[in-house]
Amino acid sequence: MGGKNHRTIAAGESAPSFTLNSTDGQKRSLREALAQGLVLAAFFKVSCPTCQYAFPFIERLHQQLGAAGAKHAQIWGIVQDNASLGERFAKEYGVTFPILVDDEPYETSLAYGLNYVPTLFLIAPDGRVDLTCDGFSKADLAALHKRLAEHFAVKLPALFRPSDGVPEYKPG
After folding, report:
1. At 158, phi and psi to the nearest 5?
2. pTM above 0.90, yes or no
3. Under a CB-based contact definition with an 8 Å cutoff, are residues 20 and 43 in contact?
4. Quick one: DSSP state of residue 101?
C-alpha cells in the first residue's frame, strides 16, 4: 500500500480508533492503550527498505524510554503483512515492542490515510495525533525523541550516534 494519495491524518486531528491482533495473538486496542498514556503507532511493510532502516532507531527509542522509566508510553509497529512476516521482521531487526497486524484490506492503514511507509503517529492520551512523520526523517525522529523526553520529564541519550552515519531523509 502506498502512493494512493489518501489524506494522511495530521497533527491535531483525532486518531481513528482500532483494535488489532499482535503477532503473539493478543488483541490490542488503541482506546485501552491511550487510557494508560501515549501511543506511537509506526506503520510499516516488511519489504520496505526505508522501514528496515528506520525500525532499529525506533527500537532504540523504545529501549531509551524503558530505561528512563517512561512507563506510560507504548510503541506499536503496525505491519501491512501477515503475522509470521511481521514476527520475522521483528527478529531480524531487533524489534522488541509489539507488532500488530493490519493485513488486507488494510482497514487501519486506510483509516489513517497512509500514502507511504513507514509513517509514524504519536497519539496523545486524549486521542489526538500529536506528531506525524513519514519516510525516514532524521529531523522528525529527533523532534519525536525530544517531545517524548519533555513529556516524561526525562533525559534521554542521543537517538543518533556519530557512528550511525544517518542521512537527513530517506523517502518511504
Report:
1. -55, 140
2. yes
3. no
4. E
Residue whose C-alpha cell reads 542521512 in the numeric block: 167
In the three-class reduction of DSSP (H, G, I as helix; E, B as strand; rest coil), residue 111 is classed as: helix
Give the tens place of pLDDT for each residue, 88-139.
Answer: 999 999 999 999 999 999 999 999 999 999 999 999 999 999 999 999 999 9
Query: Distance between CA 153 and CA 128 in Å, rounded?
Result: 20
Residue listed under C-alpha cell 520475522: 88
Cell 514476527 belongs to residue: 87
How many whole angstroms separate alpha carbon 161 and alpha carbon 98? 25
Q: How far apart are alpha carbons 164 and 142 in whole angstroms?
A: 14
For residue 159, what is its C-alpha cell? 537517538
Sign of the dihedral defined by the CA atoms of residues 31, 35, 36, 37, in that order: positive
